[in-house]
Write a structure and sequence with these properties.
It is an enzyme of class 2 (transferase). It contains 1 helix and 10 strands; from the N terminus they run βββαβββββββ. The strands form 2 sheets. Strands 1-4-5-10-6-7-8-9 form an 8-stranded antiparallel beta sheet, with no helix packed on it. Strands 2-3 form a two-stranded antiparallel sheet.
């Protein structure tokens, strides 16, 4: 198994707070990524990123990703993950978990009595969580914020 180098440090978890609202114009016309088309200047409404990305403020945290184990899911080092700790169902979801004191971001799969933590980079082997290990799901990744590369 390749050592896990993308451990999250405790200081990298930040609680989401809705103290300031930034109302940003939200245009109803789409922006072409291919050939240009005439665009309209019609503003559909204003959009607050809190309203768009945070559905449960009391249970939402931000964390910065490290390492390259999740690049197949377009999670790159330095990206900000929005994590909701209120989700009950995690099977098949990308989540921030704690395993024996290490915080990781992985896809969680339930396999009978066993939990398997999967990377989306073929360079990393699955991590099998065995009975008796200190395991906890911190929350499900609901959004990934990244700068264009």
């Amino acid at each position: 198994m390749i050592p896990c180098s993308e451990q999250l440090l405790p200081g990298e978890l930040v609680k989401a707070k809705r103290t300031t609202r930034y109302l940003i114009p939200f245009f109803s016309s789409r922006v072409q990524a291919g050939f240009p088309s005439p665009a309209t200047d019609y503003i559909e409404r204003v959009c607050d990123l809190n309203d768009l990305c945070i559905t449960n403020p009391e249970a939402t945290y931000f964390v910065r990703a490290a390492g390259d184990s999740m690049i197949g899911d377009r999670i790159e080092p330095g990206d900000i993950l929005i994590v909701d700790s209120s989700f009950d169902h995690v099977d098949g979801r990308i989540a921030v978990v704690s395993l024996n004191g290490d915080n990781l971001v992985k896809r969680v799969r339930l396999a009978g009595e066993m939990i398997v933590l999967l990377s989306s980079n073929d360079e990393y082997d699955p991590i099998y969580v065995h009975k008796g290990e200190n395991f906890r799901v911190f929350g499900v990744v609901t959004w990934v914020i990244q700068k264009p590369r």
